[in-house]
Design a protein that fits this description.
about 230 residues; alpha/beta; Endonuclease, Chain A; 2 domains; seven-stranded mixed beta sheet; 10 helices; about 15% strand; elongated
Length: about 230
């Protein structure tokens, strides 16, 4: 979390020691943005109390009211998200593979796919099919694995699917996807034939707005870095 940005936002609201409806927009947007970062909201509360302590002697009543308003704004963005879809699938077996194919088949607007290695033709065909019906596909994979025998990364590129790979000696080892900006798939499962035939693997499928946004931000950051 950018504490300097937080301090600037909080200090701006201290000019008149009150949080009007308009002034609440800045802190609320900031808290909404960082709420999925581990410990961010606790850190933000602590910083607000420090600022209040530094200024409480000037006008204790108004400073306490300001602090109450800040905490209320935090609470309005820090409330637990409503329970949504939550599934777990395991391999070996067809469960993980079929669930991934189903999500690709039901995607309507976008799929952001970030997977270490992709060699399962059944899933690769579902990726290309989604692209052909107009779904905005973006794929990030590992450069070393993209050159492995059986890798379908080149096939995606030939089909016109936007693909980016890392260009380092290290590995892009993620295995996750976000469907239509609302459904997250993550876990240990690589998109390979060995994964469903032999390996002990898992995927989790969730519709949790905070987690989806966190993974989407990370995907975008990596996508931009690999441009």
């Amino acid at each position: 979390m950018d504490t300097r940005a937080l301090d600037k936002i909080l200090l701006q609201t201290l000019d008149d020691v009150r949080l009007s409806r308009t002034e609440k927009k800045g802190p609320k947007a900031f808290f909404t943005e960082v709420q999925s970062e581990p410990g961010a909201m606790a850190q933000a509360r602590a910083r607000a109390f420090v600022i209040a302590q530094e200024r409480v002697e000037a006008d204790p009543v108004l400073i306490v009211r300001w602090l109450e308003d800040v905490v209320k704004v935090m609470a309005s963005t820090d409330a637990p998200a409503a329970a949504g879809l939550a599934e777990a699938w395991f391999s070996p077996g067809e469960g993980c593979r079929n669930r991934i194919a189903g999500l690709l088949g039901s995607a309507r607007k976008s799929v952001d796919l970030c997977v270490f290695t992709i060699t399962d033709d059944h899933l690769s065909e579902a990726v290309v099919a989604a692209h052909k019906r107009g779904v905005k596909m973006r794929i990030i994979s590992d450069n070393d694995k993209s050159e492995d025998r059986g890798s379908d990364v080149s096939a995606f590129e030939r089909a016109g699917v936007p693909v980016r790979v890392d260009r380092t000696d290290n590995h892009m080892h993620h295995k996750y996807a976000v469907f239509d900006a609302k459904t997250l798939l993550t876990g240990s499962y690589n998109w390979t034939r060995s994964a469903f035939r032999y390996n002990e693997e898992n995927i989790v499928v969730l519709q949790d707005e905070r987690l989806v946004k966190r993974f989407e931000r990370e995907f975008q950051k990596l996508w931009d870095a690999l441009a």
